[in-house]
Amino acid sequence: MSNRLMKRVTAAALAALLCMGLSACSGKTDESSSSGNSSSTAEALSGLEDGVLTVAMECAYAPYNWTQSDDSNGAVKIKDSNSYANGYDVMMAKKLAEELDVELEIVKSDWDSLIPAVQSGVVDCVIAGQSITAKRQQQVDFTEPYFYASIVTLTKQDSAYANAASVADLSGATATSQMNTIWYDNCLPQIPEANILPAQADAPAMLVALNSGACDIVVTDMPTALAACVAYPEFKLLDFTGTEGAFEVSEEDINIGVSMKKGNTGLKEKLDAILSTMTAEDFNDLMDQAISVQPLSN
Prior knowledge:
Elements: H1 3-23, H2 27-45, E1 52-57, E2 66-68, E3 76-77, E4 84-86, H3 88-100, E5 103-108, H4 114-120, E6 125-131, H5 134-137, E7 140-142, E8 147-148, E9 151-156, E10 174-176, H6 182-187, E11 195-196, H7 203-212, E12 217-221, H8 222-231, E13 235-238, H9 251-254, E14 255-261, H10 265-275, H11 280-293
Parallel strand pairs: 1-5, 1-6, 10-11, 10-12
Antiparallel strand pairs: 2-4, 3-4, 6-14, 7-14, 8-14, 9-12, 9-13
């Protein structure tokens, strides 16, 4: 019998014995046990009773997360796979698991399956560069931010838009971005007379579209753009942040959080307690580390 199964059997046996003992106790003891049960419920809600933090991510969204063939640079093996995951999200997941004193398990999932995975309980949480949007908050709960990402534009150095200094200067551009992101849903419509192509399935597909000439520009966040410029030296990053010509975005558009099943207050409190000890500088330092070891960075 595995250690994990033994833990579950032992926990079940202890729970049965506890219930038998409580039934023979006085009313005063029952009141006390009620408080104890509330504590046990909160612990069970965390999903960590098996000693494992199971985290879903795309493993295809550098520098947040990517897939590689070995465990170099601290990569973690992907569940049911011979490949490994690395990147900012993996580094953050490792830190959280270490602080929680549990094992880490990485599950690879496509972007549209991330929220269903956490809703169904297949995974404990999603750490995948998700913006904390109001729409997503209707489906899942989020921690406080574990990164703050500004919105930028990528084009080619020889593009007609290479010298754009504002969103208005992107007028008429053929554009695309990743599906179900604020980049595609909120930002692209702000470009005057833009020819908006269908959304791309993931970040790599978005970058391939730009590199192949299928579009003039893509809109993404700063870490993704910085990583892309390493992989595609012919790309040029356009950052209008802090100017009158910037994309209009809210905090929910740029705040990146860990998502979990709604009502899982046990896990949320544990993760928030760890994240609250970290600063924006800590996040940026970790992101710089991820970018430095991403594939094609050397």
